[in-house]
Amino acid sequence: MRNSGNTILITGGGSGIGRGLAEELHKLGNQIVIAGRRKQALDETTAANPGMKSLTLDVENPAAIRAFAAKLAAEFPALNVLINNAGIMRPENLLAQQSDLADAEATVATNLLGPIRLTAALLPLLQKQPHSTIINVTSGLAYVPLALTPTYCATKAAIHSYTQSLRHQLRGTQIEVLELVPPYVATLLMSGADDPRAMPLNKFIAETMELLKAQPTPIEICVENVKPLRFGVESGHYNEVFAGLNTARPDGH
Prior knowledge:
It is built from nine helices and seven strands, in the order βαβαβαβαβαβαβααα.
């Protein structure tokens, strides 16, 4: 991925990892467009970073995604980087869940269908550029699940698989496909912002940016903290890692 001169869309860019990436990529001389549901968070981020742009987007809504893609292409025809970062994470008690499965269905719509739909909608525009990049944000939990959040982990595993297929199908094009694999990071997702066991957001962003700047950029962007999860199977320690992840506290954290 080029370090500068890009036009980059980051979903979920108003807070957490999305905002951290947006601000650092903005500093490198890229045109950043952040998108998300919460206009206030978007406005706060753009106000703190002059020149950064924002558009509201509900990634659960297929019609909204199509309208958004058309608006984006009209306003930012040079768009050449898509970072699918928006996501939700909700605890689920599978023995006492709601009959309508509202949390599970919202998680699938946001974390899995959202990136698939947005990628499909923007592929024609990305194909027009001399060089383009798609970055899908998964999770270390795609590789070793946190049992407390089964649907979240399942969607991240699915996006990992989808990313591999997307990369293979686009291998003959000018579009590179990368996967960003965060560990447990101190963000508002699942109230981890104040958890001392979470990797500080600034440290995660700094290490991630160094990997993004590498030439060639690794197809899987893994900070050191996530490697026990990402390579649990390969290392032969999967059962140990799973047990440690899911027995640390009664709630699975």
